[in-house]
Write a structure and sequence with these properties.
The two termini are 24 Å apart. The chain has 298 residues and is α+β, with helices and mostly antiparallel strands. The strands form three sheets. The protein has a six-stranded antiparallel beta barrel. The protein is built from six helices and 15 strands. Bound molecules: 4-(aminomethyl)benzoic acid (4AZ). The site of 4-(aminomethyl)benzoic acid has 14 residues, from β14.
Length: 298
Amino acid sequence: MAGKRRTAEAAGAGAAGTAGAGLRRGRRALLVLLAALPLPVAAGTVASSTPALAQGQLRIIGGTGASTQQEPWMVALGSRSVYGDYRSGQFCGGTLVSPTKVVTAAHCLYDESTMRPADRPDLKVIVGRSDLSTSAGSEVAVSQVWIDPDYSMRSNMWDVAVLTLAVPQPGRGVLPLVDQGATAPYRAGTVATVFGWGDTRGNGQYPMTLHSVQVPMIADSTCAQDYPDGAFRASTMVCAGEQNQGGRDACQGDSGGPLVVAGRLVGLVSWGAGCAEAGHPGVYTRVAALADAVRGQL
Ligand code: 4AZ
């Protein structure tokens, strides 16, 4: 199935739009959850929220701090005209995979209201800036955007895009892609790490600094039960998180960012119901399913 591609859905360029998919995706599910029941106190590293906050331990959701010094390939996507100067206009994450190419999620470049590619003339890739309130590193213009022609906003399948940087970043470390068809990194229980500047609490609290959290890979069969009616498609998606207790996850604003196993890019933050809920793990683009297509763009 992994090799089977639908014919291209036209990903027309330049549709007008303002709202970004990145920060809002999954929000509806999240709001429904918040309205329906008190947010379950997450187990694991977020056991007591107040002391954890005081100690500065609440990150991505349930994680710890991270730095672009240690992870130089971790980049933010920003648009100051759409999201304002606050937090450098950050709205998604991405991964530097070569001196001129960044891999991110296709949905980061779409407008949820028009279901078309968003028009963000000032789209920037922010490199070398862990703290978005600073001017560290640089904001690099994007000269070309490739969105997987099979990407579907309806099904969330083939959620990948490649950005070309107008200014190469030769000195910066890059993260290699996992091999096409690789299965070992996706074995259930394998511990992966996800990075981002997204919501740390599942209630709209966006941090200034980069965070990361470790999440175990979840079996496709389990995830298919977590997201029934075919919403989870193992051919282009993979799940990771704490299946039974929740508490660790990516969330709004982490979209497009990397899921890493053994120094390789294996997943891209894509979607999920709410954040860090037991039985609703994060869903990631399965990079091994589209590594060749991405490599064709490098
Ligand atoms: C989002 O909206 C989003 N908990 C990212 C990750 C997850 C849900 C939503 C997974 O960008």
